[in-house]
Amino acid sequence: MSQERVRESVSGRQLRKRQGDRSTYVMVGSIVGVVILAIVGVLIYSLSRPAVQQFADLGSGQASHLDQPDSPLPEPWNSSPPTSGWHWGGGATDPGLKDVMIADSITVHNLEHGFVVFHYREDLDSASVERIRQLTLELQQLNPCIVTQPRPVDQLDVPVAATAWTYLLKLDSYDEQALRSFFADHVGKDGPEQICPVGVQ
């Protein structure tokens, strides 16, 4: 082979090697870029996702029963709306949509059995009220253990809240994804006297 052909062959191999190296760098750079974007996305979602609070368990069972729904509490609940503790021993309320607020002493009994309760302030705009009611009907098909009810303005410091046994989610506005996640995370899982199916079906 002539020296000229040898030089052409060598330079061709070097060119192909440089192109291969460049392709590898582009591919690795693209993968690193995608990973960084994914991490940033997860961080942004985590920071923006409403925080669920957990409160100390104030007890359940007969030791926490009230004689009547409106009996004075021997000691106050540790959250508003309440998530555990004193409740009427006479029974829980039926699942579903409520047009007026059910006494906390009754809905805490629901929480004890594994229910989730959605609360919305009475001054919530009608479009959001309709959305939370429609969401409730949809979630009931996945697990019947849900109550949704209005709450007087002076008894809820945010427009929307959700409760489960020892857990509370407060929202500055209607947030379908946050409510869905709370329901899936807690329905049938937290109450100490379970009667609800576990999770969504």
Outline of this structure?
It is built from 4 helices and 8 strands. The protein is an alpha/beta fold.
General description of the model:
- The protein is α/β, with parallel strands linked by helices and 201 residues long.
- The chain has 2 domains: 48 residues; 134 residues, Glutaredoxin.
- It is 40% helix and 15% strand.
- It is built from 4 helices and 8 strands, in the order αββββαβαβββα.
- The strands form 2 sheets. Strands 1-8-7-5-6-4 form a 6-stranded mixed beta sheet. A two-stranded parallel sheet has the order 2-3.
- β5, α3 and β6 form a beta-alpha-beta unit.
- The longest helix has 46 residues.
Descriptors:
single chain; alpha/beta; Glutaredoxin; 4 helices
Number of domains: 2
Uncertain ranges: 41-47
What is the average of the pLDDT values?
87
Q: Cα distance, first to last residue? A: 75 Å
Q: How many strands, what sense, and barrel or not for the largest sheet?
A: 6 strands, mixed
Tell me the strand percentage band.
15-25%
Q: Would you list the SSEs in sequence order as H and E?
A: HEEEEHEHEEEH
Q: Regarding CATH, which class of the largest domain?
A: Alpha Beta
Structural class: alpha/beta
Q: Give the beta-strand count.
A: 8
Q: Note the overall shape.
A: elongated
**Within the largest sheet, what's the order of strands?**
1-8-7-5-6-4
Question: Count of helices?
Answer: 4
Please identify which CATH superfamily of the largest domain we are dealing with. Answer: Glutaredoxin
CATH architecture of the largest domain: 3-Layer(aba) Sandwich
CATH topology type of the largest domain: Glutaredoxin
Q: Gyration radius, to the nearest Å?
A: 28 Å
Query: How helix-rich are the residues, as a percent range?
Result: 40-55%
